Amino acid sequence: MAKDIEAAPPGGEYGAKDYSDPPPAPLFDAEELTKWSLYRAVIAEFVATLLFLYITVATVIGYKHQADPAGPNAADAACSGVGILGIAWAFGGMIFVLVYCTAGVSGGHINPAVTFGLFLARKVSLVRAVLYIIAQCLGAICGVGLVKGFQSAFYVRYGGGANELSAGYSKGTGLAAEIIGTFVLVYTVFSATDPKRSARDSHVPVLAPLPIGFAVFMVHLATIPITGTGINPARSFGAAVIYNNEKAWDDHVRTATYYPMSLLI
């Protein structure tokens, strides 16, 4: 295994630290299925994704209701609601909060694209990756289902928070936006959680959920006007299942088919 030595700066303000690369996660470990820590982590992923979808989709529906020219705020509809900036903050802020809360339990993935990327890097086993993705998708469906139950009067009218390609954009543009956005997120996750970096720069404390949340925020600012931002397959899938609209399904399937490409580039 490779070993790095942290070099002290002039003046020797901090000591050297050894770093050894952790061994790759086993592809399949039957013993892992007998451990409570695995199921606790799966439950954490389910709950975190449920809360993520509930807060963010409710924010989207609430904004569209407040900014509806035919709604009760018609007089100042153009200036009502949180706007795209507020929606981006809702997504980025919730990721920051939930990654911070679940990082010590499950690693704080909350996104099948992140889980898949970490699996390709042999950071998690196949068993854990599959269970995480199932839990994330089920949590997303339940989270959006709560929004529909609480805001049934507005849910269908305002698109159900589902990802759809905006008018004026080609499917190729939407696909490119999603690939780049997903790459930015996964790249940030790998950088923020790199143990070698933590050992080398231990004198510079970094709160990993912060850059991850900011990455989600920045990507949403760029891609909300194009696709509504679907860099999280569970978020797109959960909204599409509950909304169950033909256009949403069509746009979702065409884009989600190529999600793995963004992790291999």
UniProtKB/TrEMBL annotation:
<feature type="transmembrane region" description="Helical">
    <location>
        <begin position="83"/>
        <end position="105"/>
    </location>
</feature>
<dbReference type="InterPro" id="IPR000425">
    <property type="entry name" value="MIP"/>
</dbReference>
<keyword id="KW-0813">Transport</keyword>
<comment type="similarity">
    <text>Belongs to the MIP/aquaporin (TC 1.A.8) family. PIP (TC 1.A.8.11) subfamily.</text>
</comment>
<dbReference type="InterPro" id="IPR023271">
    <property type="entry name" value="Aquaporin-like"/>
</dbReference>
<keyword id="KW-1133">Transmembrane helix</keyword>
<protein>
    <recommendedName>
        <fullName>Plasma membrane intrinsic protein</fullName>
    </recommendedName>
</protein>
<dbReference type="InterPro" id="IPR034294">
    <property type="entry name" value="Aquaporin_transptr"/>
</dbReference>
<feature type="transmembrane region" description="Helical">
    <location>
        <begin position="42"/>
        <end position="63"/>
    </location>
</feature>
<keyword id="KW-0472">Membrane</keyword>
<feature type="transmembrane region" description="Helical">
    <location>
        <begin position="204"/>
        <end position="226"/>
    </location>
</feature>
<keyword id="KW-1003">Cell membrane</keyword>
<dbReference type="InterPro" id="IPR022357">
    <property type="entry name" value="MIP_CS"/>
</dbReference>
<feature type="transmembrane region" description="Helical">
    <location>
        <begin position="174"/>
        <end position="192"/>
    </location>
</feature>
<feature type="transmembrane region" description="Helical">
    <location>
        <begin position="126"/>
        <end position="147"/>
    </location>
</feature>
<dbReference type="Pfam" id="PF00230">
    <property type="entry name" value="MIP"/>
</dbReference>
<dbReference type="GO" id="GO:0015267">
    <property type="term" value="F:channel activity"/>
</dbReference>
<dbReference type="GO" id="GO:0005886">
    <property type="term" value="C:plasma membrane"/>
</dbReference>
<feature type="region of interest" description="Disordered">
    <location>
        <begin position="1"/>
        <end position="23"/>
    </location>
</feature>
<keyword id="KW-0812">Transmembrane</keyword>
<keyword id="KW-0677">Repeat</keyword>
